[in-house]
Amino acid sequence: MTVRLTVAQALVRFLAAQYTERDGVRQRFIAGCWGIFGHGNVAGVGQALLQAQQAGEADLTYYLARNEQAMVHASVGFARMRNRLQAFACTASIGPGSTNMVTGAALATINRIPVLLLPSDFFATRAASPVLQELEDPRSYDVSVNDAFRPVSRFWDRINRPEQLPSALLAAMRVLTDPAETGAVTLALPQDVQAEAHDWPDELFTERTWFVPRPLPEPSALKRAAGVLRHARRPLIVAGGGVIYSEAGPALRAFAEASGIPVSDTQAGKGALAWDHPLAVGGVGSTGSPVANALAREADVVLGIGTRYSDFTTASRTAFQNPDLKFVNLNVAAFDAGKHAGVSLVADARAGLEALTEALSIPGAGYHTDEAYRAGIEAANADWRQVVEHAYHLGHQPLPAQTEILGALNEFMDDRDVVVQAAGSMPGDLQMLWRARDPKQYHVEYGYSCMGYEIAGGLGAKMAAPDREVFVLVGDGSYLMMATEIVTAVSEGIKLNVVLVQNQGFGSIGSLSSSLGSQRFGTRYRYRDPASGLLDGDVLPVDLAANAASLGADVIRTRTVKELAAALAQSRASDRTTVVYIETDPLAPVPSSESWWDVPVSQTSALRSTQEARVAYQAAKRDQRMYL
């Protein structure tokens, strides 16, 4: 039997019938479709979504975004909260509407988060070419701006004929639901093909379940990994996002307690083990805690679990200094498991941890770190907690320090509340200082560290977890890039708590610029000084709080940490999206991570500040190693 539908109608009906299942729990995979309509999709995918809802042909809710990049960020925030077991589709019109999604695609793929992108394209028949917003390439008529999605997508296809749709859809679902391959998937849809009718087999639209596996470690690889760990004297675990997506927190805790190995975390892995567990040592790397970084320097074995070892995690390959260092890499993706010449253990994080726990607990051949090593960790943690307390209650004047804002929020939030952040100086301070007890409390996008992610990503997180309070931390620079989804949150009645931190510029890059000898050039929001020609005049008269109010949010202005705490309580009690505004001092002190990040400094310069920074850079560079 067949049914006659347009390509767009068939697409919508297919997506509504897809499910995932892991550990016996089955759920809809595509939770809905974000979109902004233009001439490229309004009569195709737009018509199909309308018909599906009005005629009851398919259950696929449409959500209207205000920015195409933002709707991809919202999709990522949602899928991350749902441990990659549910995702969104995003439809956009031809040209700028579609290319606006490219940044979001890169963010999703880098973070290994599933999102289905449906950019509109030129006419497959070329009957009216060049159409409005079509790129003309004299080398080929088969090139469009949607080819820009190729390097940032895990799967890419252009549907030039209706007959191509079924195989493309099945390939898209395979990639999206594979924990080792997932990321952005792009199906470019020519305008005319979207509206073209075809007779489709009924089987295409039957419910289909995609089983998300928990691959077990290969026995000989498990034996090799256990053998390396069994001889470790100063081992360290690096827990990445894969631990959380696999829901392996309890298995990680059981393994750590059975072996006595301390657990550090990455930005994506924070919360995998509660911060106050005796074996939790905090973030590792460029913005990690001095406790974890001291252990990293002396570690003889590093067990990386679900981490891709970004430069922030390895401190640009200076974090681990033991000349006899060995890596054991437990990862569902062979690409990551093979990094740093490590012993590769390709497996699901939970299944791999359970297997390692059993392998290291064999009677007569068990393994546990010695008491002196654990006692040193306990003492270092106690000292560091005092430093964090001081940073959280600094009493900085006249404007509060950023660490005080984080402290007030950390102490106010419940364990199941969610903090969302992505860019600027706050991710570094958060990784170093934040105390997370729930694996979903800490939601910092630091794979792409994309300015503008925060509010949109927070919206997606709240949609995924409506029973949790979501607190979006956003700086003035990131807010100015993308505050649009405040309007979407208001429109949909989705309540967000937004803490808007104003420090009059790009505080993070300003600090980095200063350390590299570039004197904070071009990082402050100021009038141009006619005398110097530089942007170092008076502060601009920009009122971001008034802007947030104009977008429909309730706004509470605060000046002190005490007022901030009261405003947070007021925001939590409200059922409306609320923006809490506070100004901070971008020059306030922050504790040192006792680590480094490789940002090259000019080899030659007429500026003394740059010359001095180059000397410091060369000294730090000497600690950089290839892990072979």
Structure overview:
The protein is an alpha/beta fold. The protein is built from 23 helices and 23 strands. The strands form five sheets. Strands 5-4-6-7-9-8 form a six-stranded parallel sheet, with helices on both faces. Strands 14-13-12-15-16-17 form a six-stranded parallel sheet, with helices on both faces. Strand 8, helix 6 and strand 9 form a beta-alpha-beta unit. The longest helix is centred in the middle third of the chain and has 22 residues, at 371-392. The model has no long low-confidence stretch (mean pLDDT 95).
* Biggest sheet overview: 6 strands, parallel
Task: Report Rg.
Answer: 25 Å
Distance between the termini: 59 Å
Strand order across the largest sheet: 5-4-6-7-9-8
Helix content: 25-40%
Proportion of β residues? 15-25%
The dominant shape is: globular
What structural category do the secondary elements indicate? alpha/beta
How many runs of DSSP E, i.e. beta strands? 23
Mean pLDDT: 95
Low-confidence stretches: none
Give the number of helices. 23
Brief rundown of the structure:
By secondary structure, this protein is α/β, with parallel strands linked by helices. 36% of the residues lie in helices and 18% in strands. Strand 8, helix 6 (165-176) and strand 9 form a beta-alpha-beta unit.
